[in-house]
Amino acid sequence: TASETFASATASAREPVTTTASAPVARNLGLFHELEGYLRESFIVLVNTPTSSSPRALSIHNQRGAAGLERRYAESGLGMAQAYSVIEARSFPEDDVYLLKIRNPWAEGAEWTGAWSDDSPLWHEHPSIAAACGAENAAANDATTWMEWADALKFFDGGGVCFCQPEAATKGTDYRIRGAFENGFPTVALRVEARADTTVFLSLSQADQRLADHGIASVLPGGGPQRIRAVSTSREDDSLWGLDSAEGDGGYAAAMLVVCAPAAQEDSVRVELTSSVDASSPTREYSFVHARDCGLRYTFRKRDRPYFVVPRVYDSGVTRDFVLGVRTPVGVGSSTVEISFVNVARDSNLHKNYSVFRMPSASLD
Questions:
Q1: For 32-45, how does the pLDDT look when each residue is reduced to its tens digit (9 = 90+)?
Q2: What's the per-residue H, E or C state across 53-114?
Q3: Staple 294 to which of 32, 168, 263, 275, CB 3.0 to 4.6 Å?
């Protein structure tokens, strides 16, 4: 999965634009073009509206309280604290127009009433854009609407991208492996032997903070509910989970996955790629991410020597559970790929951020 809040997107952009809101928001066309790319790959893109107590939303819409903000959203045809799917993105740079097509999955009838909505005069003023977007054939009250990018940044304050693998939609296997960081060291890593070129999706997941926020026992993705210890709403036991709602990063440890490939020296490996905020664009840099999940798509090439996939955490004092995920188009143990569990020695130079190193490890049952 890959996600970025619109709040952080607008805060980091350098190109301001004033919209119909009282306060200016930043345009951040870079993020818009990223979403375009995700949609071209058939990824699932969601955006969400804020709660009525959101300080950012209250400021942007120049409202002093929840009632005024709720009225503002109702007039705009949008619900609050609600998720919307993004089904299309279109760029018209010659007209300086950038549009998202939004769908309300919750109900028909309530639609965006602002610029580029179904009844907006802008479609008549820009017939070429109307033709490209199929506006003349738009069905009334079909729960879909077009929005200008600047308005999307103003009315939505978060979102996410669900990384999809079309090639594995009808076949393949999803494996989940439980592990833990103990004082910053992972208890399990993966040894991968590729007998043929194989593309897989690798993920690293931490316990979900949202469940802890609501007094529900921890759930690790892929593992089902674990009734190990209930977390009280007073959050007195948060240290057991490593979660702190006061932290801006949501309380998740800064973590990443490292793929190590065989190096030129017989007994050495090198860091090939690491996960990043974008699962479809892994990096060669050490990129620790504060998020519940991180992952990457990677193609293991046929080699005579094994690869290693190692979970890493930034803080050497962290102790918490995690789940490794491996999605393969073919079953592990086939003639294509073999995966076994190993424990990376704590004195390995991998933990010291070397790019090439020996990989002392011990097999795990």
A1: 999 999 999 888 99
A2: CCHHHHHHCCCCCHHHHHHHHHHHCCCCCCEEEEEEEEEEHHHCEEEEEEECCCCCCCCCCC
A3: 275
* DSSP states of 121-177: THHHH-HHHHHHHTGGGPPTTSSEEEEEHHHHHHH--EEEEE---GGGSSS-EEEEE
DSSP symbol at 118: T
Q: What is the pLDDT of residues 309-325, one digit of tens each?
A: 999 999 988 999 999 99
Cβ neighbours, 10 Å, residue 55: 9
252 Cβ neighbours under 8 A, 6+ residues apart: 206, 209, 243, 290, 291, 292
**Bridge partners (DSSP) listed for residue 98:** 91
Q: How many CB atoms lie within 10 A of CB 13?
A: 17
Count other Cβ atoms within 10 Å, centred on residue 73: 21
Calpha distance 219→159 (Å, rounded) = 22
Helix then strand then coil, % of the chain, to nearest 5: 20, 35, 45
